[in-house]
Amino acid sequence: MDATTALKIGLIGCGRIAQLVHLRVLTALPGARLIALAEPDPQRRAAAGRQAPGAVACADYRELLALPELDAAVICLPPALHAEAAIAALERGKHVYLEKPLATDLDEGERVLAAWRRAGTVGQIGFNYRFTPLVGAARDHLRAGRLGELAGTRTTFTSAPRALPDWKRRRASGGGVLLDLASHHLDLVRFLFEREVIEVAAQLRSQRGEDDGAMVLLRLADGLPVQSFFSTGAVEEDRIEIYGQAGKLTIDRHLSGAAEVTAATLEHARLTRLRHALRSLAGTTYLRDKVRGPAYLASYRAALGHFVARARAGQPATPDLLDGYRSLALVAAAEEAARGGRTVAPREPG
Question: Are strands 95-98 and 123-125 parallel, antiparallel or unpaired?
Fold first, then answer.
């Protein structure tokens, strides 16, 4: 592909998240040109067409993939359709940006990986939280060893009760808190600590939908324990706390203005908290981006921008589809652990 030309993209799936995020980002992203949309629902297809008036609107994504000028597909379908659409796009030789999860089960995930290897194209999974400034800063702190020897990690990702589409209420169609919310944090654990999870234990709870609450315990390859709580029926919270002998690192996607490192002793921790509070009041680029709305969060622009740049250059993207598989393997291990009341090792691909 000529690096001076725009990447011609087709968007598959034009539901709520695509209209809030992907359509707005893709229609303004340098180096990209949104040439086609695929959405079976007539009202959503018409609404998407108004956001991207120059794009061809298709009812069936197979019609979109047949367009000879198409270079890449961005897939935003419900999870039960992810594997089928991704494989179809890869078999057509397209670059693929696939929103998480990779698939709804590991056998489907294996088939996606096999199609990707055969295609030899760029495949990126939509773990956009890797691209947030908070996560990048946290990883820098960890790499610099600012917390000393690590002792443990605690994460929480919950959302307030709200009306959910039927598919989000049933695990078979891709719902449940593990695929919906936990998959992000399971990926961030691997990304932040740069090591694999070797053991998973979990408890699941169903209140307003199937498996809409989960407590997950992970053990990393070096023995570091991670405790995570996920729910779609609690409060709005997305927080990671990492404890070390020299201090504690906190990132809160909703409330933090920066990655906060507090000292191990209470006196020093109070002073650090005060400095962080004053810095937050002064305002940061990250906070200014937040008040502009979710469609303009830096993570979405950066993730899709990374995909476009790598696809145009024909270079591998990260996080790639293998990262998507490894997150899905941790979800599957948590489900198996909860059913059997035991710890489970995640399945390796192939």
Answer: parallel
pTM: 0.91
* Residue type (1 letter), 50: R
pLDDT band at 266 (very low <50, low <70, confident <90, very high): low
pLDDT tens-place string over residues 83-138: 999 999 999 999 999 999 999 999 999 999 999 999 999 999 999 999 999 999 99
State how far the Cα of 34 lies from the Cα of 54, in Å rounded to an integer: 8
33 sits in which H/E element: strand 32-38
Neighbours of 260 (CB within 10 A): 24
The full set of domains in the chain, from first to last, is 7-129+300-319 (3.40.50.720), 132-292+330-337 (3.30.360.10)
The residue behind tokens 């950066």 is 302
DSSP-H helix ranges across 261-313? 266-282, 285-291, 298-313
Q: 3-state DSSP call for residue 47?
A: helix
